[in-house]
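Consider the tokenized backbone below.
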């Protein structure tokens, strides 16, 4: 499979929120989005925006930094939001139920490097890059599964 790439500029947090809200209704069970970038790069903001756009009415979406995984019931099915920063071994991802969730839920994974060999091959990778200009961010997207071509088509801000 050929790797596809897309680079987006998010000039404001609201632009990131709009991108997440546009992407959310296009997702289905089994879709995995891997969110990477430094601390404060906007990973949780993106995940929170995506989850809240699927909720009616939107609820509080706390960061899963300490709980590791938060699960939300939405009209599109379960959405799993995981923060793997504190994990020390990929086996802990199995214990959390993430591998099963990759097939049955929409999954948003922060710090996906902790998955190592468990990383789904058909995931969408979003790398958030602080552009050092006010609140703007660059988002580098890459994927190999053709399903993301259709999901991302027209979803850019």
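A designed sequence for it:
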């Amino acid at each position: 499979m050929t790797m596809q790439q897309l680079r987006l500029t998010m000039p404001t947090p609201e632009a990131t929120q709009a991108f997440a809200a546009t992407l959310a209704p296009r997702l289905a069970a089994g879709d995995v989005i891997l969110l990477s970038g430094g601390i404060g790069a906007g990973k949780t903001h993106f995940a929170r925006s995506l989850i809240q756009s699927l909720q009616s009415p939107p609820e509080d979406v706390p960061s899963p930094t300490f709980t590791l995984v938060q699960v939300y019931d939405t009209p599109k099915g379960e959405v799993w939001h995981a923060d793997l920063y504190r994990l020390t071994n990929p086996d802990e991802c199995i214990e959390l139920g993430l591998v099963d969730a990759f097939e049955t839920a929409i999954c948003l994974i922060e710090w996906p490097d902790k998955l190592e060999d468990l990383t789904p091959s058909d995931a969408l990778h979003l790398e958030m890059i602080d552009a050092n200009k006010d609140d703007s961010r660059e988002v580098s997207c890459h994927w190999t599964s053709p399903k993301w071509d259709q999901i991302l088509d027209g979803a850019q801000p």
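The chain has five helices and seven strands.
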